[in-house]
Write a structure and sequence with these properties.
The protein contains 23 helices and 15 strands. By secondary structure, it is of the alpha+beta class. The protein folds into two domains: 263 residues, no CATH class; 277 residues, no CATH class. Strands 1, 2, 3, 4, 5, 6, 7, 8, 9, 10 and 11 form an eleven-stranded antiparallel β-sheet that branches. Strands 12-13 form a two-stranded antiparallel sheet. A two-stranded antiparallel sheet has the order 14-15. Strand 1 and strand 2 form a beta hairpin. Helix 1 crosses helix 12 and helix 19 packs across helix 22.
Length: 604
Amino acid sequence: MNSNFSRLAQATAMNLLWTSANEGMWMPAQITELGAAMRANGLQLDPAQLSRLDTAPLNAIVSLGGCSASFVSPQGLVATNRHCVLESIQYNSKESQDYLTKGFLAKSLGEELPAVPGSRIYVIEDIRDVTADMLKGVSDKLNGFARYERLDRNRKALIAACEEQPNRRCDVESYYGGASYYLQQKLEIQDVRLVYAPALGIGNFGGETDNWTWPRHTGDFGFYRAYVAPDGSSRPYARDNVPYRPKSWLRIASKGVQDGDFVMVVGFPGETNRFRTADEVRFNFARYEPLLQHLLSDYAAQINQTTAGNREAQIRYASILQGVENYKKKLAGDLAGANAIGLDVRKAIEEKAYLDWVADDPARQARYGAAIGELGAMVDENSQASLEGLRQALLNRAQMLSSARTLYRWAKEHEKLDEDRERGFQDRDRNQTVDQLTQIERGYLPDIDRKLFEAALDEYRRLDAKDRDTAFETALDQIGLDRLYAETKLADTATRLGWLDKRAAAFEASDDPFIKLAVALYPGDIAAERAAKDRAGRAQAARATYMQGLRAYWQAIGRPVYPDANGSLRITWGKVSGRTRDGQIWTPFTTAEGLLAKHTGKGE
């Protein structure tokens, strides 16, 4: 067969696969080029509306800083998932007032409860391309670390300029592997209150057995309300704050959807890595995700074991446990799905088709040819660092050690000018840091924490000696676990917050055992961070070029392409439909009969 014809056939086959799927997480700016297909599938809105942030429906869609949500009333009522309000349910619960089990309903504005400290509602106001500004001073002459630092400095400057407007929170995200950058400007609403959460039997019916599966009969929803000062400005919780009045809100349809109807999802998906190379995909599914799944499975079992029979402990650790269980179940689905479709083989075929296309043209080969090899050369290095990082992160399961590391890093960073500090430790981050340090008080019990830390240390010690932190181990041996928990004062919230204003020298002279451990870990943390920045800088250079080539290839075969999810606003669309799986027929709607069949009185 003629090689050019073969490559054309491969490209056409992949394009047909994409066309049949209609999948994607599209940026609003891309919707105009997809408008005809969306209209053909049943969209009744003008597609141009879905590219505008200043009008309905997009300005009714908000971010909670980790979850998507929507305004659903002119009085700032926000609908989201139950698991997105879970921390607030937990924070306001105790054994004698168990909202986790019984649910919560505020029958008036005055009965609404403050959400967990750190809760925010972000209203997107603007998204703009800042690629040219981000790449100023960036060149191939820079080594990986210098490249990372230049990009980071440019990012912080853009954010600082954007946040000169009051009550704004801005972020710059990477798209297409660092080939493009966009700035998101958001109104930050700081007073968030819990309005409604369903009882456990509704909001978590089926538990992890049904999570990420179909059919699912869970009432996974909850309501917040956004509050602002009487003059409309954003400020923290105050008794005289008033409900925020959004520019638009979603109306609840009086009639449900039908089989074959056009449907659309708008929100802020967290992170995907769909454009990784074949080598990276093999590592992820052969080594990284299995290890992560093992660690999460052990962690969930340890939480369940240490909190068994203690309802107060179960309440305090409910949010952590739900997060661990949720991610563990997702990973299991990822691995099963990848194996079922032969993802590694499919990825290798797609990659070969792309590389053949590159090699067919000397200009393309000169521009794009080396990038995938450069990424491949980093796979072993990145893989080892990723696996080590999973076990190093185990140490932060001791919540007071995690707090001490944050506080000491805060002190070290505040020896610098604000623009030179690491992101996360600048003046703009202080309020959120205070909130994070405060919310620990409702999610911590020292005896439970100790047992979880002991289990984490057992796993940590399985690392090769060269990959463990000698200074940390020496300090821990000198202190011992008994003293670590008996003598620390960090468990007291006021004491913990008080350290936020102390200088690094105070930490280095402290007798608090967790602070001693944080100080011992710091040099190793900084060395690991510097190495990670160097890897990230080198990878950005290669991945941006790789993605430029991949986009050119897909354009050549008529395939639109969306960037990986990165927490920014995206639109997904499709049709209501059933499917078959393993000989089973899944209808597009659940039934009351199916719900009753599951209600056995056993399990979840």
